[in-house]
Write a structure and sequence with these properties.
The complex is a heterodimer of chains A (546) and B (250).
Chain A: H1 7-30, H2 34-56, H3 74-102, H4 115-147, H5 156-176, H6 190-212, H7 221-240, E1 243-245, E2 253-255, H8 259-294, H9 301-314, H10 330-342, H11 344-357, H12 362-367, H13 369-391, H14 394-400, H15 404-433, H16 442-475, H17 487-525
Antiparallel strand pairs in A: 1-2
Chain B: H1 2-9, H2 13-32, H3 34-37, H4 53-64, H5 79-85, H6 120-128, H7 130-133, H8 144-147, H9 155-164, H10 171-175, H11 177-185, H12 190-199, H13 217-227
The chains are: A mainly alpha (546), B mainly alpha (250).
Chain lengths: 546, 250
Amino acid sequence: MIDKLTYSERQSASFILVAVAVVGLLMAAFGNSNQLGVHGVIVMIFAAALLYPVLSAIYAPEPVEDREASYYDDPIKVGIVLAMAWAIFGMFMGVWVAAQLAWPNLAFDAAWSTFGRLRPTHTSGIIFGFGGNALIATSFHVVQRTSRARLAGQVSPWFVLFGYNLFCVLAVSGYFIGVTQSKEYAEAEWYADLWLVVVWVTYFILYLRTLARRKEPHIYVANWYFMAFILVVAMLHIVNNLAIPIAWSSAKSYTIWPGVQDAMVQWWYGHNAVAFFLTAGFLGMLYYYLPVRAQRPIFSYRLSILSFWGIVFFYMWAGSHHLHYTALPHWVQTLGMTFSVMLLVPSWASAGNALLTLNGAWDRVRSDATLRFMMAAAVFYGLSTFEGSFLAIRPVNALSHYTDWTVGHVHAGALGWVALITFGSIYTLVPTLWKRERMYSAALIEWHFWLAIAGTLIYIFAMWNSGIIQGLMWRTYTGENTLAYSFVDSLVAMYPYYIARAFGGLLFLIGAVIGCYNIWMTVKAVPSTVPARPDAPETAAAVPGE
Amino acid sequence: MAELFHRKIERSSIGFAIAIVAAASVGGIIEIAPLFTIDGTVEEAPDMRVYTPLELAGRNIYVREGCYACHSQMIRTLQDEVERYGPYSLAVESKYDRPMQWGSKRTGPDLARIGGKYSDFWHVAHLMNPRDVVPESNMPAYAYLARTPLNLNDLPQHLAVQQTLGVPYTDEMVENAARDAYGQAVPDTDFASGVSERYGEATQVRAFDGVATQVTEMDALVAYLQVLGRLTTAAYQNTAAPELPPEPVE
């Protein structure tokens, strides 16, 4: 991988890594709270671990071939591996915290392992670690293939990938030692947030510059979604994380947003993290890998336009449905509810567009588990967006809010949609990327598929039951017009479902482990092949894009 | 026609990026900006007081431990919630809260009005091991809070940043933050009288964790829990509140 870089590129990479290590040293030296010091040490180790391979190959022979004549796939390969590693970590933490709710002594009377600290390691590990790495890797792949151009940078793709993973490591390791803003899905503290801004700006510039090299006049729809993902996540991240640290030497900061305004900003962020991280980016995946795997063109160009702009415009209004009946002014709640219901139109347009693309390929859905992963993902996408619009209706929300129903809804989306589309895309991508004939074992993909489906269904049925029971118990009155159940009564009723949920999660985790093994064996044991169609950028005279 | 227009903008990556930002900005601006300008968004509450340094430190422990993952601090305007937890929450009650801890999930009960409902002794026993007092509970044990001395040194910095952000701490409060935090948990000292002077006679000054010789994280967290819902009585006025705030249980 280092051998693909020129001497001066290796120098720039070393320079960046040394600069990062120096920042880590300063954090370690001046961090007067020991938390910032710990993170300084982690930053230094991270930089040193990357610096070692770069320096040990710095005088190795430079590449002689014309690099512009091939796609830049090394960062994608590493991104896929990192995504799968984070998947295992995040899912394991998920199973553990789920088990803690059923058996609370699984926290072992330590500070780092309490539910409150572990829960964000699960959510960040999955959303940012697994989801984010999968998005970066697939976006690098899709933008090159649909533009028929190589990535516009040799070092910057590595900077984006490893810089992003440094953010994930700082975020997740911070929760264990009590570094958190306790803003849901934005728990990472100010210095990690600042670092992510640097990484993200680089990512966006790299993406735009690669698009500028495209040999196609039009930008393919998958890239619209990846662009929306990058841009809007930047907006959300910056606004929601505006904060003042109590000192440059401290990990602790205070957000600039107080009380009710903080609540609105937080859920404007929180809901659109779902929209632009967990939906837009993964729709980008769907719009490329589904047609490729099905060998069918996307059903409707017009539907793509409708659903894209519908999602970009409507979603940003919907966050306030997380705050029904709260101290947030009523008019904002009403706007949030209205737009959430309207969101069903672009959401179902996307899901429908995906499923109708499969017309003429349904026999392959039956025989090919990889394509079936993506089909099931589109179905779950349709189901969970319907459920989302439904739960956003104020009186429905009165019952569902604060209960496990919300958790079930999130997992219908996260397991059923996000993870399934990712696994389908990865199984499509891995043989292409490593130039292998096929995945190592089709049977193992079948196993993974059915474990994932079973795990998801067990999970969401358990949470539907527990959530609705909980909501009903809280509002049940006796004949004498007093509340019928204490809070603890409702908790006791939850235990069977908490056990079932942990079991469902465990099945899903086992499936992901099988997936890792299958990918490993594909790279290791499947004979390599020459692709039927040339897989290289067009170097001939370019069609002017702009 | 629309399709032709789109065929044009999808040929320009910069144009497309600008269109995305424009389309995505509208909702947030319309829903967030007026929350700062419309007067009725946050109610008037002249009796609203700020957190004492000890309570703020306790709040930061609540934040550090991620309690929001299982406890809300937002009683909704629904009859069963008002009967279970007390008067529904007002925006003014969290106007000094950074971040707000309204929460999104109740694996445990709402805590917006937990202050004064249980004794300090109950809270300490419950935090040491929840199953000692509530056998069915699935909450983690927080015994280590009682073993960990509270870090008082950087409290002036905490208050100074809050002051910058508009919380009405006086310079005197900022200066004395560490002493006041100590005094609030160690009654019958000169430090303790300073707390009542600066934060009002109603401020609860006592050894929250039952040990008056040192200030632990347990002191701070219990002090915070005991003030939840008691910074102002605004929620009990002009609402369908069935009761007055509970008298503190010693």
